[in-house]
């Protein structure tokens, strides 16, 4: 169905369900999935201050968080690449999808309550408003 799918993932259960939804949109041998992982340094406890170890630390975090998603793609023979950036997830996702066109962006919802979402907003809601391509949010 799609030849270029962007999957934004944080390794959560919602993100894994989004990966399963992405698999349903894959056309055999014609689809490439870009797995986008954003590390928010403000949310990681005890992140090392030394930049020499910074890259290793964030790569390990990515591997921990995305292992089940990568295993799923490998099991189904889906071609994928991983892109990792540091920063505010909503800003980095929007920046990436708007500068690297994909046919669809798939991401999981955070499952915030209605009140929290009204007050704080959610990453998926903000991305939906700013992305220049269709966005599928999976609960």
From TrEMBL:
The UspA domain, residue ranges: 1-139
Membership in a protein family: Belongs to the universal stress protein A family.
Residues in the signal sequence: none
PANTHER family: STRESS RESPONSE PROTEIN NHAX, UNIVERSAL STRESS PROTEIN UP12
Organism ancestry: Bacteria, Bacillati, Bacillota, Bacilli, Bacillales
Organism superkingdom: Bacteria
A Pfam family: Usp
UniProt protein name: Universal stress protein
